[in-house]
UniProtKB/TrEMBL annotation:
<comment type="similarity">
    <text>Belongs to the RecX family.</text>
</comment>
<feature type="region of interest" description="Disordered">
    <location>
        <begin position="59"/>
        <end position="81"/>
    </location>
</feature>
<dbReference type="Pfam" id="PF21981">
    <property type="entry name" value="RecX_HTH3"/>
</dbReference>
<feature type="domain" description="RecX third three-helical">
    <location>
        <begin position="230"/>
        <end position="270"/>
    </location>
</feature>
<dbReference type="InterPro" id="IPR053926">
    <property type="entry name" value="RecX_HTH_1st"/>
</dbReference>
<dbReference type="GO" id="GO:0005737">
    <property type="term" value="C:cytoplasm"/>
</dbReference>
<keyword id="KW-0963">Cytoplasm</keyword>
<feature type="domain" description="RecX first three-helical">
    <location>
        <begin position="121"/>
        <end position="156"/>
    </location>
</feature>
<dbReference type="Pfam" id="PF02631">
    <property type="entry name" value="RecX_HTH2"/>
</dbReference>
<dbReference type="GO" id="GO:0006282">
    <property type="term" value="P:regulation of DNA repair"/>
</dbReference>
<dbReference type="InterPro" id="IPR053924">
    <property type="entry name" value="RecX_HTH_2nd"/>
</dbReference>
<dbReference type="InterPro" id="IPR003783">
    <property type="entry name" value="Regulatory_RecX"/>
</dbReference>
<protein>
    <recommendedName>
        <fullName>Regulatory protein RecX</fullName>
    </recommendedName>
</protein>
<dbReference type="InterPro" id="IPR036388">
    <property type="entry name" value="WH-like_DNA-bd_sf"/>
</dbReference>
<dbReference type="Pfam" id="PF21982">
    <property type="entry name" value="RecX_HTH1"/>
</dbReference>
<feature type="domain" description="RecX second three-helical">
    <location>
        <begin position="165"/>
        <end position="205"/>
    </location>
</feature>
<dbReference type="InterPro" id="IPR053925">
    <property type="entry name" value="RecX_HTH_3rd"/>
</dbReference>
């Protein structure tokens, strides 16, 4: 079985040897079919060529004999396992199979190294365009049909070098959405969760953006600092003035929807509405 497996592996790596092995099998079959006690014309003997001595079709000798045809007993012995071979022949088989195995392993290593370089190049190109979370970058690279283990290896390398950091991404994203779109903590956390940022890092990022270092009871209750409340009131005042032609109830409902949609708690919403009604009476 070991010799059969080795022959199949050799044929897979070197297809040009198929003709030699086929000739060997045909010779064995003809010797057994025309043994003692059988009648009929014996088919012409096929000349065997050793595929270990050189390529097929070049007139090489068999097992070191000078163009001599093997006897029937020698031909029958070809069908046996490696224990029937001479020590030198077994050594030649072992050396050749070992060399082919080493070449196959070297080729596999070269392919793996090339794949790692391709994944690293694609990751750098993606990060050069915009920032990504770890989860987003993994999805992008896996979408390019790269092996998952190679993608994870490259991502781990980037994280160790500081090129990927979900904490920094969450803080930058929170600050940008707060200043440009007036998003509140709830909506920012929801968006970060969809991007694959862990909840702990999302909570820490929103605290850095909406809260300060002061230990204020109102800040603790509302979840945002006084400075953040002032900024929010300025933005809400713009929305309040746009609906000044509407009845008071409609204006109030409109500003409540605006604040709730952006992810502010009911405590923050109620405080802003009361302040707007006090400073901008109908």
């Amino acid at each position: 079985m070991a010799a059969l497996a080795a022959s199949r592996r050799l044929l897979h790596l070197r297809p040009e040897l198929e003709l030699c092995l086929r000739s060997r099998v045909l010779t064995l079959y003809s010797c057994r079919a025309n043994g003692p006690g059988r009648s009929g014309h014996a088919p012409p003997r096929r000349r065997l060529v050793s595929f270990r001595q050189g390529p097929c079709g070049e007139g090489n000798t068999f097992a070191g004999k000078n163009n001599a045809m093997p006897s029937p007993d020698e031909q029958l012995n070809l069908g046996k396992d490696d224990s029937a071979l001479e020590p030198t022949e077994k050594k030649n088989f072992s050396d050749e199979f070992l060399q082919l195995s080493l070449e196959e392993e070297e080729g596999h290593d070269m392919v793996c190294e090339t794949t790692v370089q391709d994944v690293r190049k694609s990751a750098v190109e993606l990060l050069a365009a915009r920032a990504f979370t770890v989860s987003e970058l993994r999805k992008k690279l896996c979408g390019k049909k790269y092996p998952a283990d190679t993608v994870d290896s490259v991502i781990a390398d980037f994280k160790s070098r500081g090129l990927l950091n979900d904490g920094y991404y969450a803080e930058s994203f929170s600050r940008s959405r707060w200043q440009s779109s007036t998003w509140g903590p709830r909506r920012i956390k929801q968006a970060l969760r969809q991007k694959g940022v862990p909840d702990a890092e999302a909570d820490q990022a929103t605290r850095k953006v909406f809260q300060d270092d002061q230990d204020d009871e109102n800040q603790t209750a509302r979840g945002i600092s006084e400075a953040s409340m002032d900024h929010l009131f300025v933005q809400a005042s713009k929305q309040w003035q746009r609906g000044k032609s509407l009845p008071l109830e409609n204006r109030r409902a409109r500003i409540v929807r605006w604040l709730q949609y952006r992810g502010f708690s009911w405590g923050v919403t109620n405080t802003i509405v009361r302040k707007l009604e006090a400073q901008h009476p109908p």
